[in-house]
Amino acid sequence: MKMSDYWTTMASLVGMLAFCQTILQLVFPPELRLALIHLLTRMRHVFSSHTYFDITEIDGVNTNELYNAVSLYLSSSVTVNGAVSSTSNNTRLSLTRVPNSSSVTFGLSNNDRITDVFNGVTVLWEHVVVQRQVQSFSWRPMPEEKRGFTLQISKRDKALVLDSYLDHIVGKAEEIRRRNEERLLYTNSRGVSLDSRTHPWDSVRFKHPSTFETLAMDPERKKRIMEDLREFANGQGFYQKTGRAWKRGYLLYGPPGTGKSSLIAAMANYLGYDIYDLELTEVQNNSELRKLLMKTSSKSIIVIEDIDCSISLTKREKVKRKNNNNGCYDPDLTNGSGLMDEPGSSVTLSGLLNFTDGLWSCCGSERIFVFTTNHIEKLDSALLRSGRMDMHIHMGFCRFQALKILLKNYLRMEEGEVDGVVLKEMEECVEDAEITPADVSEVLIRNRSDAEKAVRELLCVLKERVVRRRKSGGVKKKKEEGEEDEEEGEEEQEKRALDSPNGNREFFGFEDEKDGDEDADK
Ligand SMILES: Nc1ncnc2c1ncn2[C@@H]1O[C@H](COP(=O)(O)OP(=O)(O)OP(=O)(O)O)[C@@H](O)[C@H]1O
Ligand SMILES: [Mg+2]
């Protein structure tokens, strides 16, 4: 018998069995009917070219996590770009909105089907809902309906499901869950009791609109950061294999208004993480800092803004001056700052480094530390040393690529829609103008109802700034260094400072400090 004949015969047999099932439902009493239906279903499955997997909502008495995961997963495959995909037009969708979420999710209605394609294999999902038989007594009341998903997959592709499809579904569902839930912004306040019962962090809903799409930044750098974040979030296996704590540190530096806080918000929105905004000045000592860390959840970003303004670092430098032994100061050998003078009285650099680096940083997992500063040169070399913060990101003045993103954000103007001559002029002067994205935004917001006017005014502002800077000697005639610009210079400077111990001292302002001290003494 030919293969095709074989399958045709099988298909007619399966069809016949299905027909018998329907007849049975009409003719026999319920108990007998149920038993025969079971028998016929089994026979149908034996002769069918497909394998079936049942995923019921309640497994014994416990809720089946896989059911919820499939439900969420299918809700995402139903909506692609807002359009209904991979379902026939007849498919009914149910709409749900979970508490604390602003987004609506689609789901498969009762007894409807949907196809999904994974690694080139098409599978069929059916949402099976049947009425549960009435229970006379139960310790745990069951829902009236018995719900489950049936996955139909070709027998030859069975291994695929067991190997990777279900893992894929669980991973995707987790991602959707995080995306749908609203994120929280936590902050610490002074004097909160840190006993085991109270929560030292206050939280509010975090609804910052900043995303990587709206962030005005060079697209290449943006892409690199996004890849880095994605790799981190998906890197559980890597961190386990290499024996590293599953955490990552970013140092964002640059002038005010260049988007450091906006980048943090974009990171949180991108990964769906909560933010812990740690106010270091409110933390009384290292042990309080440690307790705060212990009460953060995983999948979170722990932020310390303006780290150079933190009291601990200033104190540390004062102690360093007192203890200075011919400039051979090593922040890692001493235990940091004011500790020696005032034990336990304040947060010290070593306490902070333990917080990010030491054993305590590993309680919990999947955490990102972000420090920001306007003055990287004021930071202690111990914080900048390699291995401390994994990525140093310079947020600089607005450049042409970033400017175009801002025009799109605020005026909805694509590159082609702006007058070519004006755009060219902007390109020529934007770097010399040394304008922050915040200042550009301000001009655009002010004139957002009239895009033409906004662009004209922005060009005037840029030109004025260039003229002003030229007068004050801030702009060189023409950059002979070509593209070797200031940003590169700053990063180079940072590297050089770290490489050389003497350079280090200058770069991190140890020389300036003397003046500062003298001022203070006066
Ligand atoms: N790179 C950017 N992309 C998009 N918007 C930006 C960017 N930089 C600044 N802005 C705009 O300027 C405002 C201030 O930016 P933001 O608070 O992120 O700057 P910052 O670098 O954190 O400043 P500070 O050092 O003062 O904390 C933001 O609300 C945002 O609208
Ligand atoms: Mg900020």
Automatic annotation (TrEMBL):
<protein>
    <recommendedName>
        <fullName>AAA+ ATPase domain-containing protein</fullName>
    </recommendedName>
</protein>
<keyword id="KW-0547">Nucleotide-binding</keyword>
<dbReference type="Pfam" id="PF14363">
    <property type="entry name" value="AAA_assoc"/>
</dbReference>
<keyword id="KW-0460">Magnesium</keyword>
<dbReference type="InterPro" id="IPR058017">
    <property type="entry name" value="At3g28540-like_C"/>
</dbReference>
<keyword id="KW-0067">ATP-binding</keyword>
<comment type="similarity">
    <text>Belongs to the AAA ATPase family. BCS1 subfamily.</text>
</comment>
<dbReference type="InterPro" id="IPR027417">
    <property type="entry name" value="P-loop_NTPase"/>
</dbReference>
<dbReference type="InterPro" id="IPR003593">
    <property type="entry name" value="AAA+_ATPase"/>
</dbReference>
<feature type="domain" description="AAA+ ATPase">
    <location>
        <begin position="246"/>
        <end position="399"/>
    </location>
</feature>
<dbReference type="InterPro" id="IPR003959">
    <property type="entry name" value="ATPase_AAA_core"/>
</dbReference>
<dbReference type="Pfam" id="PF00004">
    <property type="entry name" value="AAA"/>
</dbReference>
<keyword id="KW-0378">Hydrolase</keyword>
<feature type="compositionally biased region" description="Acidic residues">
    <location>
        <begin position="482"/>
        <end position="492"/>
    </location>
</feature>
<feature type="region of interest" description="Disordered">
    <location>
        <begin position="470"/>
        <end position="522"/>
    </location>
</feature>
<dbReference type="InterPro" id="IPR025753">
    <property type="entry name" value="AAA_N_dom"/>
</dbReference>
<feature type="compositionally biased region" description="Acidic residues">
    <location>
        <begin position="509"/>
        <end position="522"/>
    </location>
</feature>
<dbReference type="InterPro" id="IPR050747">
    <property type="entry name" value="Mitochondrial_chaperone_BCS1"/>
</dbReference>
<dbReference type="Pfam" id="PF25568">
    <property type="entry name" value="AAA_lid_At3g28540"/>
</dbReference>
